[in-house]
């Protein structure tokens, strides 16, 4: 596997509690802040040491054995290993691959040049294409088992490659790792760009110009009247000003501050005019010449001649990337990665915030997504994820703009609705959700929710008690509606099976009739007759998880396709176990392709180890398949089918069941013959 998109199913966040997740995100935020601050503060001669420290922290956080940073040479055809970190006692990759050339490693370079901030993820060397033989050799020489890298870009140009490797074990990094690693890569790209810019500027001859233009911070110098007399290149870049146009203009007129921060900024001018000679302030927002908002920090100091102020120096630092990284980390901590709704931690926090008399009446809805386990077992977790995402969208779209909608568990949602009572929630929100769920036709099963409502109407009521009431109501409704919901789910599954296999209602009717007649012939009791009738309808329910191209292939299946087809018995078993209405026939579904001689599947059971209903369905299904149209076999006459059953009695089929079934068919023929003569 390589260059794949990292994804998650609906259980990925359940591996850690919300508190643990938030703790990890906060820890990562601290690391990124220290890395970013270090690159901002340290001089060029401290760059390498801080870069080594930064790679070590990133490598340790992602549990890697190596972390590395390659940067392009001037010709753009070679990646040179700039900095590396190895976990003791792992051998450094610098031993074997100091430089990577486009000529020798063409496959890797082609992937680097694809798109913007492209992620490269490899966890199976054997899956690499033939043209990646040089890369495969490189990874093997370095004992690499997992490789994860991101292309560093600046101004839409690739400037390097930053990545992680594991040696001791494979590591399946998730999409959350990808998001965090992407945040860190932005900081490293900025630092690499800063290093390049600094080296380039050092070649200039004017020492003062070099000093000022090496800085990433904007430097603007004014006279005592705050009229601009000089600004460096960074100031031009950050503000959009051009030096020759800004000269002799008041800085108060050319520095545009966003309205929400204007009052705070005016205080700075007042302080300066009052004689303040030093100040520092963060969390300002600068609007540049192109109307782009940038987060900045500003420091102002006075230029003194003895005790007389002869000028001011304004230093502006663009902290937009850092602020964006902090926001992204906070966002990851409070949002559900699958649905995009708020998560449980945020819900708990907001519930406390809204627990105020000003928000009364305050209603809470707790909702549970019905049938998620059956959908996961029947169609796979990808379809289960689609059900969850669609359900989340329906809930959010049905609520008001200011309502808080969260996913608080695997299949559980919660809504905080301020300023609305229980009756209105039922009429305006819950009924709308139910209506839209019923109308949804693009999923294998329509979304269905059990929803409990409780409302806090008086300040002295405990919000946690209200929440538990909503949960209790939800569970009560779920219990009341459970049977009808599951019946509806089974009807949907049966319909999906008919659509995917093209098996008609006639087939289902024949199977039920033949099976119950056989049951009567061998003396089944009433409970067993119920079992065999239901098994006749749903013995192949596991085929809804089998790909359609295999189910409906006109010719013979190859070995790989047959291996996939044979999994439907186990899939059907999992579906049946998930539903109380089907659990009692789960073992029969699992065993309906076992053989009398023990050569069947999936467990290789033989003779009386195979449940009786499974042995019966095997005979009935084989007869119906032989005597009716199937895409892969010609139709046999009843006599030919009976001859085939006799031939396989004692090997594929229970001989006693075959004998009883044939006697039943003959009796039916005789009865039909008599009726036709009357």
TrEMBL record:
SUPFAM superfamilies: GAF domain-like, HD-domain/PDEase-like, Nucleotide cyclase, PYP-like sensor domain (PAS domain). Gene3D superfamilies: 3.30.450.40, 3.30.70.270, Hypothetical protein af1432, PAS domain. Residues 360-491 form the GGDEF domain. GO terms for biological process: regulation of DNA-templated transcription. Coiled coil: none annotated. It comes from the Bacteria. Residues 482-677 form the HD-GYP domain. SMART domains: GGDEF, HDc. InterPro entries: GAF, GAF-like_dom_sf, GGDEF_dom, HD/PDEase_dom, HD_GYP_dom, Nucleotide_cyclase, PAS, PAS-like_dom_sf. This is Diguanylate cyclase and metal dependent phosphohydrolase. It comes from Syntrophobotulus glycolicus (strain DSM 8271 / FlGlyR).
């Amino acid at each position: 596997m390589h260059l794949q998109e990292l994804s998650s199913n609906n259980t990925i966040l359940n591996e850690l509690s919300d508190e643990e997740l938030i703790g990890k995100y906060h820890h990562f935020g601290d690391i990124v802040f220290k890395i970013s601050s270090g690159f901002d503060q340290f001089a060029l001669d401290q760059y390498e040491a801080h870069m080594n420290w930064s790679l070590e922290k990133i490598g340790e956080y992602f549990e890697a054995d190596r972390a590395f940073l390659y940067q392009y040479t001037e010709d753009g055809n070679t990646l040179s290993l700039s900095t590396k970190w190895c976990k003791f006692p792992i051998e450094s990759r610098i031993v074997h691959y100091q430089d990577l050339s486009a000529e020798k490693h063409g496959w890797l370079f082609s992937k680097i040049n694809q798109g913007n901030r492209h992620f490269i993820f490899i966890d199976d060397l054997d899956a690499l294409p033939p043209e990646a033989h040089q890369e495969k050799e490189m990874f093997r020489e370095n004992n690499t088992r997992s490789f994860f890298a991101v292309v560093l870009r600046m101004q839409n140009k690739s400037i390097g490659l930053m990545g992680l490797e594991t040696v001791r074990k494979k590591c399946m990094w998730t999409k959350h790792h990808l998001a965090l690693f992407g945040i860190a890569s932005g900081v490293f790209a900025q630092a690499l760009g800063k290093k390049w810019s600094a080296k380039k500027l050092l070649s200039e001859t004017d020492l003062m110009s070099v000093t000022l233009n090496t800085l990433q911070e904007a430097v603007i110098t004014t006279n005592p009247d705050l009229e601009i007399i000089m600004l460096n290149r960074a100031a031009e870049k950050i503000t959009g000003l051009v030096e020759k146009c800004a000269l002799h203009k008041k800085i108060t007129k050319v520095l545009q501050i966003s309205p929400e921060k204007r009052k705070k900024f005016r205080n700075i001018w007042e302080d300066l005019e009052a004689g303040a000679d030093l100040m520092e302030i963060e969390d300002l927002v600068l609007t540049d010449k192109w109307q782009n908002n940038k987060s900045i920090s500003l420091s102002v100091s006075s230029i003194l001649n003895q005790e007389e102020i002869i000028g001011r120096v304004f230093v502006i630092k663009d902290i937009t990337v850092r602020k964006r990284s902090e926001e992204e980390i906070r966002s990851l901590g409070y949002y559900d990665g699958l649905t995009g709704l708020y998560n449980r931690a945020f819900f708990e926090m907001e519930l406390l915030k809204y627990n105020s008399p000003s928000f009364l009446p305050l209603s809470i809805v707790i909702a549970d997504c019905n049938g998620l386990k059956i959908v996961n077992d029947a169609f796979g977790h990808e379809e289960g994820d689609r059900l969850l995402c669609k359900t989340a969208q329906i809930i959010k779209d049905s609520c008001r703009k200011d309502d808080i909608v969260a996913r608080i568990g695997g299949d559980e949602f919660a809504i905080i609705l301020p300023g609305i009572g229980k009756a209105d929630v039922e009429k305006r929100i819950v009924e709308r959700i139910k209506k839209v769920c019923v109308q949804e036709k693009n999923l294998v099963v329509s979304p269905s929710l059990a929803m409990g409502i409780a409302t806090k109407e008086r300040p002295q009521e405990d919000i946690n008690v209200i929440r538990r009431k909503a949960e209790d109501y939800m569970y009560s409704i779920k219990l009341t509606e459970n049977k009808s919901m599951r019946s509806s789910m089974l009807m949907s599954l049966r319909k999906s099976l008919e659509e995917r296999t093209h098996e008609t209602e006639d087939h289902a009717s024949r199977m039920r009739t033949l099976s119950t007649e056989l049951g009567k012939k061998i003396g089944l009791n009433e409970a067993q007759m119920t079992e065999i009738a239901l098994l006749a309808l749903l013995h192949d329910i596991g085929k809804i998880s089998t790909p359609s191209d295999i189910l409906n292939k006109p010719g013979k299946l190859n070995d790989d396709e047959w291996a996939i087809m044979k999994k439907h018995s186990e899939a059907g078993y999992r579906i049946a176990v998930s539903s109380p209405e089907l659990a009692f026939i789960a073992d029969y579904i699992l065993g309906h392709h076992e053989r009398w001689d023990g050569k069947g599947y999936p467990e290789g059971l033989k003779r009386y180890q195979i449940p009786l209903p499974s042995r019966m369905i095997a005979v009935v299904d084989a007869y119906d398949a032989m005597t009716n149209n199937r895409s892969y076999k010609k139709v046999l006459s009843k006599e030919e089918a009976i001859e085939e059953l006799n031939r396989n009695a004692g090997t594929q089929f229970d001989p006693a069941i075959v004998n009883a079934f044939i006697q039943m068919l003959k009796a039916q023929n005789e009865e039909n013959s008599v009726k036709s003569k009357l």
